[in-house]
TrEMBL record:
Alphabetically ordered keywords of this record: ATP-binding, Nucleotide-binding
Protein name: ATP-binding cassette domain-containing protein
Protein's organism: Rhodovulum strictum
All copies of domain ABC transporter, residue ranges: 7-251
Keyword ATP-binding attached: yes
CDD domains assigned to the protein according to its UniProt record, in alphabetical order: ABC_Carb_Monos_I (cd03216)
Length: 254
């Protein structure tokens, strides 16, 4: 098995004025794993995944994907490289429909004559695909996939964002608090979907404050503290209270 990280970062620094959100931060995502990232509020977890997914520019450091240095100018550039991210803010367009949100910027077109500049959107195929992906998530309580996202509940919106990432992430899927807005049943479906993405051989970065969820699905846990990676622990060898003690600084990892 190839033990080189798929996604790797060394010495990341991100400053917002006087605040240093990432302070010489390292990161490694191994092939096929679910890596949880945990840390206190303000520890810099979101900044880390934004740096990895092109949503913010880093001040210092290096990121490699499959061993090649990368510098994503935008989330779109990261997406083109196969890195799909669900941000806490979800990045959905409320006025657009569910299908339009799933395909935003990568619409499928009907086959056309070679060289023809305009090809019609293949709406039927996109709708069937969107319906499939949502039903995999158990989200077919949504009656109409042409309805605007702004008419959905918070949990349903989260489901659309997660389904989109799971459907299109070909190298890495990053989920920032994917179960935060969800009830017990919906959370369970998201956890199942995470395991399903893993079974397709795609590694996942899961940022979560929910320790039972983290310990249920993660292969390794990156503990983030004060803008950097404090340690990486194996959930089979550490308890939840250990993990919380490390991230709050109550206990030092050995
Ligand atoms: N756009 C911004 N402008 C100024 N400061 C920011 C900005 N984004 C983040 N920060 C600061 O950087 C630090 C790290 O924030 P970040 O959101 O990465 O932490 P986090 O671990 O994801 O926190 P949480 O668990 O609360 O989401 C915090 O002190 C935060 O206030």
């Amino acid at each position: 098995m190839n033990r080189e990280p798929i996604l790797k970062a060394r010495g990341l620094v991100k400053r917002y004025g006087r605040v240093t959100a990432l302070d010489d931060c390292d990161f490694d995502l191994m092939p096929g794993e679910i890596l949880a990232v945990i840390g206190d509020n303000g520890a810099g977890k979101s900044s880390l995944i934004k740096a990895l997914s092109g949503a913010i520019a880093i001040d210092e450091g290096e990121i490699t994907l499959d061993g090649q240095p990368v510098s994503f100018a935008s989330p779109l550039a990261a997406r083109d490289a196969g890195i799909e991210t669900v941000y806490q803010t979800l990045a959905l367009s409320p006025a657009l429909s569910i299908v339009e949100n799933m395909f935003m910027g990568r619409e499928w077109r009907r086959p056309g004559l070679a060289g023809r500049w305009f090809r019609a959107l293949d709406r039927d195929r996109m709708r069937a695909f969107a319906r499939d992906k949502l039903s995999e998530l158990g989200l077919m309580t949504i009656q109409n996939i042409d309805q605007p996202v702004e008419t959905l509940s918070g949990g349903q919106r989260q489901g659309v964002a997660v389904a989109r990432a799971a459907a299109f992430g070909s190298r890495v899927v990053i989920l920032d608090e994917p179960t935060a807005a969800l009830g017990v049943k919906e959370s369970r479906r998201v956890l199942e979907l995470i395991l399903d993405v893993k079974s397709r051989g795609i590694p996942i970065i899961l940022i979560s404050h929910n320790m039972p969820h983290v310990f249920e699905v993660a292969d390794r846990i990156h503990v983030h503290r004060l803008g950097r990676r404090l340690c990486v622990i194996d959930p089979r060898e550490h308890s939840m209270s250990d993990a919380v003690a490390y991230m709050t600084g109550a206990k030092a990892p050995h």
